[in-house]
Amino acid sequence: MSSLADLMLDHSSQMMLLVDPASLRVVMVNQLVTQTLGYPRAELFAMAITDIESSLQDVFYWEDVRNAQYQEIEGQEGLYRCADGAMLSVVKSVRVVMHEDAPLILVLARDARYERQVEDTLEQTLSQLRATLESTGNGILVIDWQGKITNMNRLFSSMWGIPDALLLERNDTAIFDFIAERVMESDLCRARLRATVDSAETDDLHRLRDGRVFECKSHPQYIGERIVGRVFGYTDITERTHAEEALRESRDRLEDRVRERTAELETANTTLQAEKRHQETLIRKLEEAHNQLLQSEKMASIGQLAAGVAHEINNPVGFVNSNLGTLKRYAEDLLRLLTAYEEIEGSLTTEQVEAIARVKKEIDAGYLRADIGELLTESLDGLQRVKRIVQDLKDFSHVGKAERELANLEAGLESTLNVVWNEIKYKADVVKEYGSLPAIECFPSQLNQVFMNLLVNAAHAIENHGRITLRTGHDESVVWVEVEDTGKGIRPEHLSRIFEPFFTTKEVGKGTGLGLSLSYGIVNRHHGRIEVRSEFGKGSMFRVVLPRILPPETAASQ
Predict the structure, then answer these.
(1) I need a labelling partner for 137 at 20 to 30 A (CA). Which of 191, 324, 340, 462 fits?
(2) What is the pTM of this model?
(3) Which CATH superfamily is domain 6-115 in?
(4) Residue 80: which of 69, 71, 89 has the closest Cα?
């Protein structure tokens, strides 16, 4: 290809990739491809198009191409894999071109991220504008510079009583005439509606023939410095106008009415103050009840942990006790042998030697020497297990550590897993996919409570036997911990309520509904979030995302 053609391709606004349909290899790209995706041109020529377009529909499409089944595509959304592993949203088109009597596949793609951002921003702006027009307390009418109605809210048509048939005709002149005829000063009203390119702001009172009074304020609508229309706001001030007239008519009695109203307000204020004090009392009692419920949840969790720890401790303590009993008997036998040696020391005869040999054979002295060491090793191992379980419980609770500190969440997750192991070991296999988390600033005991709730909930969600996967990961600003199970999942209608206090799907007596609510509060106080993904009947995934550094004010809020 000539350098001029290369120059034209490299200045294209779209990424262009030419693909050999037989091998699916990229044979030519323009400069925008290397700039956007981050691959060197030489590396691209060594790649297949499926290395870039790796979604399932793309794989099927390119497999059809390999089988000489060509189909052109126009404006299809897709994902491109960049050199750094990121996925780029694109809109692509595919063409079949002939070169030297052989087909080639030309892929044209453009980055769709900014288009989506613009579309989302525009849609949000329009939605806000529509909501603003409908939620305002004024009737709004918008007219462009040509005198055409571009928008009106429902309140405007309602307060003017415009018939539906007239609205459906979209006859702007007829609508203006209908409005003007209802006003006593019709000419002024028509003049205002026609003066759409006037730069002045207006403020008028329209007295309608049915006795109502409308206040009309209008403002020019600009794009840059050019007037493109006018916005009219109508407010029904009939009641206010009548009230003002009534006030003017009763001015002589105003002082008495003010005193009466003042007395009423004072009475109302006294009643409000009493109600406020009553509400403060109720709020205080509610907070106390809430704290008691949280404490009950914590105590229930502690009891559950204590039962699990006791169960785990019983196993090593049992065989340590048994081994020590056996060791005692072995030691007594060895002492018998030692006594026999002492009795014949210095005067060994053949008979005595034979007697000692019989004792050795009776107690199997050689076996004792070998077994005593093994028993002691096994006993020490059991004691180490006891110490490890106790240490895990201590690490889980972080007794005496009420201030934030640098902690490794994977270590906390491990200690919590050991503490609740009795709840899990018969229900699920645990798979660990740790990402070597850095230490973060946090309140470790509180986060361990969150991990415990998620692990126990995962075990409870598995009815027979399943799998619980623990994953961790991090980037420059956050770390995350995932607990995924293969349990029964969460119903879609329940997903929005799982963090509500007292909400539970467990049977009566098996859950208070405070575990996830408490966990949500802890993570929120750490300036993090909990993400949930669940498919009913297949399982759930809870991800705890936390900042690596807590802001200074967090310490005061705990």
Answers:
(1) 191
(2) 0.37
(3) PAS domain (3.30.450.20)
(4) 89
